[in-house]
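User: Look at the shape:
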Amino acid sequence: MSSLFERLADVKAKLLGKPAVEAPVPFEVVCDCGHRVAGIRRKGYQIAECSACTSAIFILPADCYPKVKKPVAKEAPAPKRSVAGPASGPPNEPERDAASAGTSGESVSPEKRKQGGKSEPRKEAAPSDQEVILIDDDVIRLPRVPLTVRIRRIFTPVRLLGVASVVLVGLTAWWMIHQRTLEEARRTWRREMDTVKTAIEEGDRGSVATAIKKAVDAAIVLSRDDADARDAKSLLRQVQSVDAVKSSSSDPVSVLADVTAAKVNNVEDLKAILDRVNGICCVFESPLVRSTENEQILVLNSPLLTPSGRIRIQVDSELLRGFYGQVGQDNMLFIASVKDASRNQAGSGEWLINLDGRSVTLLTSELLASELGYDPKLIPETADILKRQLEFMRTDAAQRPEPEPEVEEKKK
C-alpha cells in the first residue's frame, strides 16, 4: 500500500508540482553595544538576548507570504566618486579594535571606545546600488493604437471589395431599369402621339384628352424640349383650360351685367357679387394695350359696358407680353381665370377685374376652339389667330415660366 501511495504522490507532484521546502531564515542584528546577535527566525516573533550587554532585542518572525517573481532591476546611474581628502595616518587603535572585535565576536568596553575621542556612530545598512521595480501581474497596459492602424483595420481590402461589388451591382441594376424605362417612354410617346393625331382628325375630343396626358408624361421622362414636345404640352394645357371653362357657370361680364344700382350701394350685396366673379375661368378674344399706369400690365382693348358701370379687364402675364411684342394690337384668343375683382366707388364707378397671369393659355387647336364656339370654318379670322399663336408657342419666349405671386408682391 505504501508503494501505491508513493506512486500517486509522484504523479501528483509531476502534474501539480512539489511544494516548496521551507528553508530556515537566519537573522543577524547589531545591538546598541555593537555586538551582533544571530539566529534563526521563527514563525512567531521572539526576544533575543545580547550576550555582551544582556539587552533584550525584538526579532520579527519569518515572512509568511509566498515569494513573488524575481524583481526586475533598473539600471542605476554610475556611482559618484568621492574626492580624496588629505593623507591620513593609520587608523586609530580604538577603531582597529572595534573592527577586530566585530569580526571575532568579542565585546569592546565603553572605556576603549571613548579613548578614540568621539563615540562610534551606529552602523546603518548601505543603500542598494540598483533601484528595484516590482511588476504587477494584475495590471495590463496596452499601447494606444494609432489612427491609421484603426482605419486599416476597419477598411480592410475584403470589406472594400465587398462594398464596391454591392455598389457596382446596384448601379448596374439601376442602369438597366432606367434604360428599360426610357425605351418604354419612347414607345408610349410614339403610340400616343399617333392616337392624338387620329383623334383630332376624327374630332374625338375625349381620346385627345386621354392620349395627350400620356404623351406629355412620356416626354417628361425623356426630357424632351423640341417643337413636338412643346406642342404636346401646350395642347394638354388647353384641354385642361377648356375643362375649367366648362366647369364655370358663367363669365364675369354676364355676372356684372345683371347688377343693379341698389345692389352696388349695399355693402353686403357688393361683396357677394365680387365673390361670385372671383375664380371664374373664361375665354377672351380681344386685342391688348399697355396700361398707362404700369407698362407690365396689359388691358383688354374692347368696350365692356353694363348698366352698373364700365368693366376694365387687365392682366399681368409674361406669356401675353411676349406675344404682344410680336403681334402688337392684333386680336388674341386666350383662356384665363379671374384673380380678383373690385369696384371704384369714389370715381366713375368702374369695375376692375384682374386676371391670373399664371392661368393664361393661348389657344392653338382648332378642335378645342370650335368646342368653345370659335369655329375656324365659320370665322376665317380665327384660323389666322390660331396659326400665329401656334408659331409663338413653339418659340423659346413662350417657355419662360410665370413669376411667383410672392415675388411680384416683393417687387411692388
Summary: Residues 157-202 form the longest helix (46 residues). The mean pLDDT is 79. DSSP finds 14 helices and 14 strands in the chain.
